[in-house]
């Protein structure tokens, strides 16, 4: 009987996954975002294959070369470095930071949200007061303050952004758990002798993953924007490391002379954030049971 029940559950999950995949595939903007993001992922995974030059090579005899110059499709910067190569290598940093930040924030927020929603009482009060403390400070100001204390580096950027983003996931998971913990299937698990940890991570957590996945897609876009903002302010990745926000900071002093130095990094940021937003919208439509059944 147990094997039959497990088989039925697996079949239901498979049918639900196929239905969600069909809904996602029908969303043209989500497919466009996926293709765009895969292009960035490919460039980030194989930058030495895609990039035409070393991003650190300087050609002091050929600075500020315009786009379309021989050997430099997008031109060069003030040190004669190839902008296209620096954009390609910069994608690796931006996508890595986005993934790590979302991983840190989602892990901390989901765990605390589960504990807060399931146990309630003092645990819920403590977690929610901590969330309110984080929300009482402007996000970017808090990140700048912490970065100023810890010092600018890629590792500090990931740590800071991960730590200031976890309240989003905590509140989301808590609200979901509050609506699920009194459901009949949870009561049945308790009656069968399941422990609190098993109920939370085996039964409640899977029912919270859909909104967490959608929020993570959007959160990755926000993390990339925040990384670029910190780099532009000089508190993120430091030169000469190629990073899109740092490239914007380097090009702002030459805006009138060579606008392409900030145009192309800005376009790269816009495209990757747009692709993640398209994917997030597609995942929301695909993973929301109400919208899926309507289709």
- What is the CATH class name? Mainly Alpha
CATH topology: MetI-like fold
What's the number of helices? 13
The CATH homologous superfamily is called MetI-like
Query: Runs with pLDDT <50, length 5+?
Result: 1-6
The overall average pLDDT, rounded, is 86
Domain tally: 1
Describe the structure in brief.
This protein has a single domain (39-56, 69-294), classed as MetI-like (MetI-like fold, Orthogonal Bundle). Helix content is 75%, strand content 0%.
Report on this model:
The chain has 295 residues and is mainly alpha-helical. The chain has a single domain, classed as MetI-like fold (Orthogonal Bundle). Helix content is 75%, strand content 0%. The longest helix is centred in the middle third of the chain and has 37 residues, at 83-119. The radius of gyration is 23 Å and the shape is elongated. The two termini are 34 Å apart. The relative contact order is 0.15.
List the helices and strands and how they pair.
Elements: H1 2-26, H2 28-45, H3 47-50, H4 83-119, H5 121-135, H6 139-150, H7 154-180, H8 184-191, H9 196-204, H10 209-232, H11 244-251, H12 260-287, H13 289-294
